[in-house]
Structures are given as C-alpha cells and as structure tokens.
Specification:
Elements: H1 14-20, H2 30-40, E1 48-52, H3 58-65, E2 69-74, H4 77-90, E3 94-98, E4 111-117, H5 125-138, E5 139-150, H6 156-174, H7 178-187, H8 193-202, E6 206-213, E7 217-223
Parallel strand pairs: 1-2, 1-4, 2-3, 4-5
Antiparallel strand pairs: 5-7, 6-7
The chain binds S-adenosylmethionine.
The site of S-adenosylmethionine (SAM) has 18 residues, from loops.
Length: 231
C-alpha cells in the first residue's frame, strides 16, 4: 500500500512542525501527567509500548523509565531530535522511528500499549481511519490504545464559541501564540468526537471510555478485543 501513488504524504507539513518544535522544548508538569496516565494504563516492565506523534518524547521517556521497551515515533525529525536530547537528560532508553501514523513499521499483534496524543488531527478523516486500522493491527489482542486529540464536541453552530474558548485556554495555560491556534483551525483536520468514536469502533476497537473535557479535548481508551471475543 505504501508504494501507491495516491497514498497520503504525511511529510508535507514537516516544515511547519519543525517551526513549532521550539514550543515543545519547555519545562512543565507534562512528565507528571504522562506518568499518571501510564500508571492508569497499567504499564509494566517488559511491555512493548509505542508513542505515535511522540513530539518531545516526554511520555515515551516516562514509559521507558517504568521499564517498558518504547518506540518513540514521529514524522518530524526536529521533534525526534528533541526527544533524543530529552531521553539523554532523563537517562531513558527509547528507540526513535522517523515515520508517521500511516507509515510506522510494525509486526502484527506486537504492542502491549499504543499511545497517540494530539497527533491524529494531522490527517484528513479517511486517513485517520487508515491510521486507526494500522494501530489496531499492531496491538496485541486484549491490549489498549490510548488516544487524546483536539476534537469538536458541539455541532458547527456552537463551534465558534468553543474555538474561541479553546484559543483562550491554550494561550493562557500553555503559552501558545494565537497564530498557532489559528493555524490548527485553518489548516489541520480536527473532526467531531462522534466521528472519531465511529471510526474507532469500525476499526474493531471496543470503546472503553470517551471523555470530553477542556475546550475541544477528547480522551479515548480503547481495547483490541481478545482473540475470539466480539468488539
Ligand atoms: C501537537 S504535537 C503533540 C506531541 C506530543 N504527543 C504531545 O502531546 O505533546 C503533534 C506531533 O505529531 C507529529 N506528527 C504530525 N503528523 C504526524 C503523522 N502523520 N504521524 C506521526 N506524527 C505526526 C508532529 O511532528 C508533532 O510532534
């Protein structure tokens, strides 16, 4: 499939992502948040974990420090370079892979956990579904997929209010420039939470929980059913 001339080019926006890499080169409490999420997900020593769209590598490093074998995957070499520096600082052993949701290399049924945070919206909807099927294929039966992203909760008539609230939230809490927030709306592919939920279940996942919180944030816990079990 990768050789097809109609396959989506995930690398087309790398220049832009490199420009925002500096935003992620910062110190905050994201390590504590990542540790909390990984603990909730039951990460254990020896687990095979992938973080797809790993950005500056904070979550990947926390998983490695908990004893997991971690693939830190990102389409942007600038982000992976940050992740490698961060891993060195934290003395965490991660394996970086310069690839995307549509191109990461995997053995079928091999991961105990896959995480992807704030990355799926980089793909248009058809390609989101392709990516979710690949993630499904890469997970062991009975294993979890933890997805967080920027998604619309209301219908378009409520979007203006939500987008403005979300812009204010990001500027105030994360120090983002309004320009980067506006770029997200204009040039990226956030979709409705209910579209994501349907894509996830169509891919075969059991939707364990869907939580909509903060303006436009969705958090999903999915499970690949055990062999022979219905989704
Ligand atoms: C908003 S950042 C999120 C980074 C990190 N997961 C976090 O939550 O802080 C989005 C990341 O997705 C990466 N990315 C963009 N398109 C991608 C794709 N198709 N596959 C994998 N990573 C991608 C970007 O390079 C960037 O590191």
């Amino acid at each position: 499939m990768l050789a097809r001339d109609w396959y989506y080019n995930e690398r087309r926006r790398i220049g832009l992502d490199s420009a925002v890499a500096s935003i992620y080169d910062r110190h905050d409490d994201s390590d504590l948040r990542a540790r909390g999420a990984l603990t909730m997900l039951g990460v254990r020593a020896g687990w095979r974990v992938a973080d797809i769209g790993c950005g500056n590598g904070v979550l990947a490093c926390e998983a490695a420090l908990m004893g997991a074998e971690v693939d830190a995957i990102d389409i942007s070499p600038a982000m992976l370079a940050l992740a490698e520096v961060y891993a060195r600082d934290r003395k965490a052993s991660i394996r970086t892979q310069s690839a995307g949701l549509l191109s990461f290399a995997y053995d079928a049924n091999s991961y105990d956990l896959i995480v992807s945070e704030f990355t799926l919206h980089h793909l248009p909807d058809f390609w989101k579904a392709v990516a979710l099927s690949r993630i499904y294929g890469a997970l062991k039966h009975g294993a979890n997929f933890y997805l967080r992203d920027i998604v619309f909760v209301s219908m378009p008539d409520g979007s203006e209010r939500d987008v403005e609230q979300w812009a204010d939230f990001n500027i105030k809490n994360h120090g983002f420039e309004r320009a980067s927030v506006v770029t997200h709306m204009r040039d990226e592919y956030s979709t409705f939470g209910w579209v994501i939920e349907r894509m996830l279940t169509e891919a075969g996942f059991t939707l364990v929980s869907a939580d909509y919180h903060a303006p436009l944030h969705g958090t999903y816990l999915l499970r690949k059913p055990k062999s022979g079990e219905q989704a």
